[in-house]
Amino acid sequence: MSFTPESTDNTSIATIRTLAADVVGKANSGHPGAPMGMAPVSHVLFTRFFNANPKNSKWFNRDRFVLSNGHACALQYILLHLLGYKLSMDDLKAFRQLDSLTPGHPEAHHTDGIEVTTGPLGQGFANGVGLAMAQAHYGAVYNRPGFDLINNYTYVFTGDGCLMEGVASEAASLAGHLQLGNLIVIYDDNHISIDGDTAVAFTENVEQRFLSYGWQVLHVNDGDHDLAAINGAIVAARAEKTKPTIICLKTTIGYGSKQQGTHGVHGAPLKADDIQSLKSKFGFPPDQKFYVPKETYDTYRAAALRGAKLESQWNSLLAEYAKAYPKEHAELTRRISGRLPEGWEQKLPVYTPADPAQASRKLSELVLTAITPALPDLMGGSADLTGSNLTKVKGTVDFQPPSTGLGNYAGTYIRYGVREHGMGAIANGLHAYGGIVPFVATFLNFVSYAAGAVRLSALSKHQVIWVATHDSIGLGEDGPTHQPIETGIHLRAIPNLDFWRPADGNETSAAYLVALKSTQTPSVLSLSRQNLPNLEGSTIERAARGGYVLYEVANEDLTIVSSGSEVPIALEAASLLKKEGVNVRLVSLPCWSVFDKQDEQYRLSVLRSGAPILSLEALTTTGWQKYSHEQYGLPAWGASGPYLKVYEKFGITGPNIAAVSKKVIAFYKQKGGQVVSPLVKAL
Question: Which of 115, 165, 420, 630 is catalytic?
Answer without folding.
Answer: 420
